[in-house]
Amino acid sequence: MIQNAWLIPVFPLIAFIILLFLGNTLKEKSSYVGITAMALSFILSVIVLFERIGGETYSFTVNWITFGDSTITMGYEVTPLNAIMLIVVTLVSLLVHIFSREYMHEDKRINVFYSYLGLFSFSMLGLVLAPNVLQLFIFWELVGLCSFLLVGFWYFKPEAAAAAKKAFLTTRIGDVGLLIGIILLFNATGSFEYAEVFAHVEAGLVNDTMITIIAIAIFLGAVGKSAQFPLHVWLPDAMEGPTPVSALIHAATMVAAGVYLVGVMYPLFVASSTAMTIVAYVGAITAFFAGSIALVNTDIKRILAYSTVSQLGFMILALGTGGYVAGLFHLTTHAFFKALLFLGAGSVIFALHHRQDIRKMGGLWSRMRITSITFMIGALAIAGVPPLAGFWSKEGILAAVWEGGDIFLFILAVITAFMTAFYMFRLFFTAFTGEFRGDHEPHGENKKWMTIPLVVLAVFAIAAGFVNTPFGFWLEDFLLQGLTLGAQAHGELWLAGLSIVIALGGIGLAYFMYGKKGTVPATDTSNVSGVHKLLLNKYYIDELYQAVFVRPTVAIGKFFWEVDKGVVDGIVNFIGRATRSSGRTFAKRHDGQLQTYGLVTIIGGLAVIALAFVVRGYFG
Amino acid sequence: MVPIELVLALGAILFCIGLYGVLTRRHLVIVLVCIELMLNSVNINLVAFSSIGPFANITGQVFTLFVITLAAAEAAVGLAILIALYRNRESIDAIKQDLLRW
Amino acid sequence: MNINTHIVFFLILAVIAIVCAVLVLALKKISHRVLSMAFCFFAVAGLYFLLRAEFIGIIQIMVYVGALSILFVFGMMMTDHKNVGFGPERKKVHKFLAFIGVGTLLGFMLYGIMGMNLPSNNEQFIGSAEAIGVELYGNYVIALQAAGILLLAALIGAIVLARKEAE
User: Fold this and answer.
1) Is residue A101 within 8 Å of residue A34, measured between CB atoms?
2) Which of C73, C99, C113 to mutate to test the interface with B (most CBs of B within 10 A)?
3) Transmembrane stretches, by residue range (chain B) (predicted)?
4) Domains identified in chain B, total number
5) 3-state DSSP assignment of residue A593
6) Does the residue C56 lie in any domain?
7) Chains contacting B with at least 3 CB pairs below 8 Å?
8) Cα separation values, C136 from A239, A244, A482, Å
9) For the segment C18-54, what is each residue's pLDDT rounded down to a tens digit?
10) Which of A36, A158, A490, C161 would give a disulfide with B80, using CB separation of 3.0 to 4.6 Å?
11) What is the pLDDT of residues A329-379, one digit of tens each?
12) Residues of A with CB below 8 A from C102's CB?
C-alpha cells in the first residue's frame, strides 16, 4: 500500500471537486462527501504508517522540467517524519470534518465550507508528501490560500475579512523569504531534492555563510507560517474564522507546517550554528511572549491562539537547540490536544450561541459534562501533567534546551511552561466552574457529532505521549532512521520532577486565583496599569506595526497617488486630449466623399512621382 | 505613319480628362462614363504599341480585347449598383453617398 | 496614303475624341453627355482603323458605341427622374485642386512621352482577326476562360444587384 500513498491527498481533492460541482445540490449532505474522503485517507495513512515502520523509505518521482543539467521532479515520498504527519493531518482533519457537520449545519454555505476543507486537506497532505522543496513550496502557498479562504469564510463580517487579509499578507512576508531561500538553495546545490541538497551540504560543497543565509531565509518562511515573533500577529486575528477551522488549520496542521519545514530541512540548519541559535532564540522569545499575553486575555479562542503561538515557539526552540525528536514529538502531541481544546471551545461557543468571552461563561461543568471533561484532559495535557501526552513531549523539549547549554533559554522555557499551566487553568476555572454568568443559558450538551471527536481526541491526548517515554523511545528510533544527527537529549529524573512541579504550581496558582474563590478576571480594564496593561495590549505590537509599517506605507501610497493623479494622469490626459482633438480635426477631413479620397490619392501619388523625379530622373 | 508619341499623347489627354471627370462630377452615371474613358485611353496605348510600336505584335490587341471585356463587366455591375443605390437612397449624387463618414 | 494624310486623319480623329470627352464633362443634360461619349468612342474606333487594328475597331464600335452606350442610356433612364435632387456643387477648392493635380499628372506623362525616344518602326503591323483568334485560343486560353467566368459573374451580379428586393 505504501506505493499508493499518493492516494491519500487525492481523496480530499476528489471531495473538493465533487463539492465544487455538486455542492449546491448536496447542500447539507456535503459533509458526508468530505467525511468519507477523509476517512479513506485516514485508513490509508494508518496502513502506510505501519508499512513504513516495518519497511524502508519509499519515494517515487517523475521528471517534470529539464533545463540544462538540472531536472525538476514531481512525486511523493514516505519518510518516517511525513508518515507520522500523515496520521496527524488525516486524523485531525477527519475529526474536524465530523465536528463541523453539527457546528456548521445552520450555515447556508456549508457545502462551500466542506469544499474548502477538502482543498485544504489535499494541500496539506500534498505538502507533507512532497519529495522536493519546490513541490513543498507550491502546496505551501496552497495551504496559505485555503487559510485565507477559511479565515474569511464569514466574509460579511468586517473583522473576518480584515483578519483574512492580515493573515495572507503577514504570511506572505515569510513566504517571500522562503522563496528566496529556495532559489538560493537551488543556486548553491543545483537541485531541489532533499536528499541531493543534504548530500551537497554535508559534503561541504556550499560555503558556511551561504548555508546560514539560506537557512535563515527558509526559517523566515517557517516564522510566517508558524506565527513566530515578529510575524505572529496574524494568528490571533485568524480566530475570526469558524472554530473547526481554527482547530484544523490554526492549531494542528498548517501552523505546524513551519515547524515541519524546519524539521524537513534540519540537516541544513544543523550545518549552521548561527542559524540554529537564531532559531532557538526566536522560538524561546515567541513562546514566552505569546504565553504572557495569554495570561490576561479573556476571549476563549484568543487564549488558545496565543497558547498555540507559544507552543509552536516551544517546538521551534526545541529544534533550535538540537532537540529534533523533541520538537517533532511535541508537534504531534500538540496537534492532538490543541485540536481537542479548540473543538472543545467550539462546542462551548456553539452551545452559548457564539459568545466567546470567558467572563460570561462559568458553571459549564454541570451543564456540558463531556465537553468539560475532555477540555480538562486537553488542559492537563498541555499543562504537562503526567502521564498525559504533553508531559512527555514538553519534558523532552526542556531536556533538549538544558543539553543545549544556554541557561537563559532554559529559564525562558521553564517560565513559559509555568505560564502555560496557569493560563490554561485560569481559562478552565473561569469558564467551567463556579456560577453561570452569561445571559443565555446553554442548551445542554451538544449532539454526538460534536462530542465523539472530542472523546477521540481526548484519548489521543492521553495516549499519544507513550510512543516516546523513558520506558521506550520508539518514536525516536523511528524518526532518526536514515538521519545522522547524533544523540538526542533525554531528561534526567530531576528534570521530570521540575516539570511536574511547574505544571502543578501553575494549576495551583490558577486554582487559588480563580477556581477557589470563583473570582472572574475584571471586566473593567480601564484602570489597570504597568505590566498587566502592557500584556492586555499585546505588547502594543499591532500598534507598533501600525505606526512603523502601515502608516508610512499608507503615507507613501498617498504621496504617490497624488503624484499619479497630478503628474502621470496629467500627462496621460494631455496625450488623450491632444489625440482626441487632433482626431476630431482630421475626422472632418475624412468626409466619406469618394472623390475627396480620390483627389488625395492622386495628389499623394504625384508627390511620390515628383520625389522619384527629383531624386533619380524620370526613368531612373 | 503617325508618330507613336502623338498617339500616346492622345491617350494621356483622354486619361486625364476621364480622371478629372471622376474626381469632380457629381452624377454617378457620368463618373462611370469617365471611367470608361480612362479604360479607352489605355486601349489606345495598347493598340498603338501593338501596331506601330518598336516591337509591334498581336499581343497588345489581344489585351485590348480583355480590357474591353473587363470594361463591359464593370459597366454592367456599376450600373446595377447605381440602380440599387437609387432605389434605396433616392439619389445618385456622389456628394450624398457619404455613409462612411467619420 | 502617305504619312501626311495619316497625320491629318489622326489629328481630325484626335480632336473629335478630345472635344467629345470634354463635352462629356461640360454639357448640362445627361442624355447629351452620353451621346457625346458615344461619339468619343466612335472617334477612337476610327483611330483603331487608322492604326490597322480593324478587328479591335469593330469590337470597339460594337461593344462601346453599341452596347455600352445603350446600357448607359438605360441606367440614365432608370435613375434620372425629375425628382433626383442634386445638392450644392463641389467646392471651388476641390475643383481647382483636382484640375491642378490632373494637369500636373498630364504634364508628367507628356514630358515622359516626349522624352522616351522610342526606336522608330517604319513597318506597320497589321493585326488580323485570325491572328488574334490564334493567339486567344493558344497562348491566352486560360485568360480567355477567366474572362468568360468574369462576364458570367458580372451578369449574375448585375441581376442580383439590380433586382427589386423583397419579392
Assistant:
1) no
2) C113
3) 6-23, 30-56, 62-86
4) 1
5) coil
6) yes
7) A, C
8) 93, 92, 93
9) 999 999 888 888 888 889 999 999 999 999 998 888 8
10) C161
11) 888 899 888 999 999 888 888 888 878 888 778 778 888 888 888 988 999
12) 602
* Cβ(A332)–Cβ(A88) below 8 Å: yes
C32: closest chain B residue by CA: B30
Non-local (6+) Cβ contacts of A185 within 8 A are A133, A192, A197, A214, A218, A268
Query: What is the pLDDT averaged over residues A195-200?
Result: 84
Cα C159 to Cα A420, B31, C76, C149: the distances in Å are 98, 21, 17, 15
Residue C21, C-beta contacts closer than 8 angstroms, at least 6 positions apart: B14, B17, B18, B37, C36, C40
Q: Which residues contact C149 (CB under 8 A, 6 or more apart)?
A: none
Which domain CATH number covers B25? 1.10.287.3510
**B22 touches A: beta carbon within 8 Å:** yes
Phi first, then psi: what are they for A584, rounded to 5°? Answer: -65, -40
Kind plus residue range of the DSSP H or E element containing A541: helix A541-545
pTM (2 decimals)? 0.66
Range of the domain at B55: 4-89
- What residue type is assigned to position A383 of the chain? A
Share of chain A above pLDDT 70, in %: 96
Q: If contacts are CB pairs under 8 Å, which of residues 6-65 in chain B contact chain C?
A: 6-10, 12-21, 23-27, 29-30, 32-34, 36-37, 40, 43-44, 47-48, 50-59, 61-62, 64-65
Counting as low any pLDDT under 70, the low residues of chain C are 1-3, 80-89, 122, 165-167
Cell 500616346 found at = B8
Grid coordinates of A241: 474564522
pLDDT tens digits for range B4-43: 888 999 999 999 999 999 998 888 888 999 999 999 999 9
The reply to whether B20 falls in a domain is: yes
**Residue A556: exposure state from Cβ atoms within 10 A (0-12, 13-18, ≥19):** exposed
**A311, A442 in Cβ contact below 8 A?**
no
Query: Is residue C30 in a domain?
Result: yes
Partners of A132 in the beta sheet?
Answer: A193
Mean pLDDT of chain A: 85
Which of A366, A380, A379, A369 minimizes the C-alpha distance to A347? A369
Identify whether B102 is part of a domain. no
Q: Read off the pLDDT of residues A284-302 as tens digits, 9 standing for 90 and up.
A: 999 988 888 888 888 888 8
Range of the domain at C9: 1-79
For A384-473, where are the alpha helices, taking DSSP H only? 389-404, 407-432, 448-463
Task: Retrieve residue A352's grid coordinates.
Answer: 452559548
For residue C140, what are the contacts with CB-CB under 8 A and spacing of at least 6?
A: B62, B66
Residues in chain B within 8 Å Cβ distance of A599: 23
Half-sphere exposure of A415 (CA within 13 A, CB side): 16
Q: What is the DSSP letter of A132?
A: B
Q: How far is A583 from chain C (nearest CA, A)?
A: 22
Res. A481: pLDDT tops 80: no
Residue B100 resides in a domain: no
Does residue B98 lie within any of the structural domains?
no
Q: How many domains does chain C have?
A: 1
User: Is residue C114 domain-resident?
Assistant: no
Nearest C-alpha of chain A: how many angstroms from B61? 26
| Contacts (Cβ under 8 Å, ≥6 apart) of A87 | A42, A45, A46, A49
The tens digit of pLDDT for each residue in A84-142 reads 888 889 999 999 999 888 888 888 888 888 899 999 999 999 998 888 888 899 999 99
- How far is Cα A41 from Cα A10, in angstroms, rounded to an integer? 8
Between CA A109 and CA A112 the distance in angstroms is 5
Higher-pLDDT residue of A515 and A378 is A378
Q: What is the ipTM of this complex?
A: 0.88
Considering only residues A371 and A469, tell me which one the structure prediction assigns the higher pLDDT. Answer: A371
Instruction: Say if the Cβ atoms of B47 and C53 lie within 8 Å.
Output: yes
Record the cell numbers describing residue C48, joined without a space.
Answer: 483603331
Instruction: Tell me if C154 is assigned to some domain.
Output: no
